Structures are given as structure tokens and as C-alpha cells.
């Protein structure tokens, strides 16, 4: 078993233990689902951060993506971005993180993108869970609007409900650490 295979197995276990709830849920997309994946219960845990950081860095390398920074729409993307940036640092790779606000800040600097982002930067958008791809699309629009170049989208979980296809149809490559079908 490779390190990446062992890490993916552990991530699936963590998500099953911490993040999946069965019932009747309305998702952010408005769709109904018999399960909810609150990935933050995994992405914000110490072990989850370590596993996601290592797996995320491995996926960036496997894809040949060489971003200057990783980030996405707050709140789900934040711990994922920080985990990957920390893992990169531990391996001597220069990679920073940023956060895309849902709205432009109305005070202070008035920024929508906070952290380590500059116009012209090649970036990878990260997500905790992709369902319809709407959050990733919003982050991509903000990043491109500020002059960034999006290399692709990396999600912790792809629910397999059309988000990947929507993004890929728009010309954005997508990768996921695990899929919902891996977990259920």
C-alpha cells in the first residue's frame, strides 16, 4: 500500500466517523439529500489537517499543478488551503494560502481576497465538498476578477452530483481526494 493509498483510506475513515450524517437534508444548492457531509468536522481536526495537507500536496504534484497559492470561498476552503500550505512548507515547497470572502469587505482595505494572493498568481481553488460547483465558480470568478490564473480545483470530497462536470465544461480541471461513493 502506497503512502497516498494509506492516507486516502484514513481520510475516508475520518470522514465516515466525523462528517457524515444520515437523515433528510437540504443542501446549499437547494437539493434534498439522505446524507450530509459536514467535512469541516474532519478538515478542522488535527489529524484531518495532517492527512488532507499531505494528500492535497500529493494531488497537486500528480496533476503537475504548480500554484503560487491555494484557497477558495470561506469557510469550507479555509482549513483545506491552510493544511496544504503547511504540508508544502514541511516539504520545502513554497506555497501560500488565501481566502475568498463571500462579499467585498466594506471596511479596512475593502478586499474580497485575503491572505497571500497577488494579481498574476497561478492558484488552485480548494473546496471541502463539491456538489454543484457553485462555490468553486464563485471563487474562480473573484480570483479571475483580481487577475489570478486558476490552474484547477481540488476538493476533499466530490459528491458526484454534477459539480465536477459543470466546472470541467467551463474549462476548469477538477480533482478530488475522495468521492461520496467511496464513503457511502
Q: How many domains, in number, for the residues?
A: 1
By CATH, the architecture is named 3-Layer(aba) Sandwich
| CATH topology label | Rossmann fold
Tally the helices.
Answer: 7
Helix share bin? 40-55%
Beta-strand residue percentage: 25-35%
Instruction: Summarize the biggest pleated sheet.
Output: 6 strands, mixed
- CA gyration radius, whole angstroms: 16 Å
Order of neighbouring strands in the sheet with most strands: 5-4-3-6-7-8
Name of the CATH first level: Alpha Beta
First-residue to last-residue Cα separation: 22 Å
| Approximate shape | globular
> What are the secondary-structure elements, in order, as H or E?
HEEHHEHEEEHEHEH
The overall pLDDT, averaged over residues, is 95
Instruction: Please count the beta strands (DSSP E, at least 2 residues each).
Output: 8
Give start-end ranges of low-pLDDT stretches.
Answer: none
Structural class: alpha/beta
Question: What distinguishing features does this structure have?
Answer:
single chain, 184 residues, alpha/beta, Rossmann fold, 6-stranded mixed β-sheet, two-stranded antiparallel ribbon, 7 helices, 8 strands, 28% strand, globular
Amino acid at each position: 500500500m502506497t503512502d497516498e493509498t494509506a492516507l486516502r483510506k484514513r481520510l475516508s475513515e475520518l470522514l465516515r466517523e466525523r462528517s457524515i450524517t444520515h437523515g433528510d437534508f437540504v443542501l446549499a444548492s437547494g437539493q434534498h439529500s439522505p446524507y450530509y457531509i459536514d467535512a469541516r468536522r474532519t478538515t478542522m481536526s488535527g489529524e484531518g489537517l495532517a492527512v488532507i495537507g499531505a494528500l492535497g500536496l500529493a494531488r497537486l504534484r500528480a496533476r503537475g499543478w504548480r500554484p503560487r497559492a491555494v484557497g477558495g470561498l470561506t469557510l469550507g476552503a479555509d482549513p483545506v488551503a491552510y493544511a496544504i500550505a503547511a504540508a508544502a512548507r514541511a516539504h520545502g515547497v513554497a506555497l501560500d494560502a488565501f481566502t475568498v470572502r463571500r462579499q467585498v469587505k466594506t471596511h479596512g482595505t475593502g478586499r474580497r481576497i485575503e491572505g497571500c494572493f497577488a494579481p498574476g498568481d497561478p492558484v488552485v481553488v480548494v473546496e471541502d465538498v463539491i456538489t454543484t460547483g457553485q462555490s468553486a465558480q464563485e471563487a474562480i470568478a473573484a480570483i479571475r476578477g483580481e487577475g489570478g490564473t486558476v490552474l484547477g480545483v481540488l476538493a476533499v470530497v466530490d459528491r458526484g452530483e454534477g459539480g465536477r462536470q459543470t466546472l470541467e465544461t467551463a474549462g476548469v480541471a477538477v480533482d478530488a481526494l475522495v468521492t461520496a461513493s467511496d464513503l457511502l
